[in-house]
UniProtKB/TrEMBL annotation:
Gene3D superfamilies: 3.40.630.30. It comes from Eubacterium maltosivorans. The lineage of its organism: Bacteria, Bacillati, Bacillota, Clostridia, Eubacteriales. PROSITE patterns: GNAT. GO terms for molecular function: acyltransferase activity, transferring groups other than amino-acyl groups. Residues 3-155 form the N-acetyltransferase domain. This is N-acetyltransferase. Transmembrane segments: none annotated.
Length: 215
């Protein structure tokens, strides 16, 4: 199996959304909204098409990753521009083959060349710490509501890129999606059964609760 990576193209959009839906369906919650997020993200001024990649097995898209600009609102009053990564998706039958890691490395290399300091995301620490990320708390970077969160992870794109930077991580508003619009968008795709109480959902709920007030 030879997997290739390239930038997402306009003709890929619907297939990429379908891949994202398959990857996230029932993973974090019954059903998913991530494919709608991919759909609307491309219209955001913060979206970076040069950092949107797809993974292909032949002509079939089997994975994708996207990024937008965000900021760390510094405790010193200064805003530091960084990247938010996600969604990142791999079809279930292709998972645990290193494809997600390859896409992450591609994003990091390209983002570094573009001059960005760091990538932040909310995700499973068990996975992202294996991909070069560390807890944002290590840098005294908190959530927008000034909490330390286990899910908030950061990856510097060059040594000491975040030296002297600490504050609150502020995601772009594109992540504040409308659940009503997301549900309507999902009806454009073939019906899939929603399930609750899955092991991945239970783990996600546990990680979400791993928050504490900043000192």
């Amino acid at each position: 199996m030879e997997i290739k990576l390239r930038c997402e193209q306009t003709k890929d959009y619907r297939e990429t959304e379908a891949v994202t839906r398959e990857a996230f369906w029932n993973h974090y919650a019954p059903g998913c909204f991530e494919h709608y997020l991919v759909h609307v993200m491309r219209d955001s001024p913060a979206f970076l098409p040069g950092l949107a990649f797809v993974a292909l097995d032949g002509d079939k898209i089997i994975g994708n990753v996207m990024c937008v600009k965000s900021i760390i609102q510094g405790d010193d009053g200064k805003a530091c521009e960084v990247l938010t990564l996600g969604p990142i998706s791999v079809l279930p039958e292709y998972q645990k083959k290193g494809i997600g890691g390859r896409m992450l490395r591609q994003v990091r290399a390209k983002a570094c060349k573009m001059g960005y300091r760091a990538i932040l995301l909310y995700g499973d620490p068990d996975y992202y710490t294996k991909q070069g990320f560390v807890p944002a708390e290590n840098y005294n970077i908190r959530t927008a509501d000034n909490m330390y969160a286990a899910a908030l992870q950061v990856c510097e794109l060059r040594v000491h890129a975040l030296e002297g930077v600490q504050g609150r991580f502020i995601e772009d508003t594109v992540y504040d999606i409308s659940e009503t619009k997301a549900e309507a968008f999902d009806r454009q795709f073939p019906f899939k059964e929603k399930c609750s109480g899955t092991p991945s959902q239970q783990k996600f709920e546990k990680i979400v609760r791993m928050r504490r007030k900043a000192d």
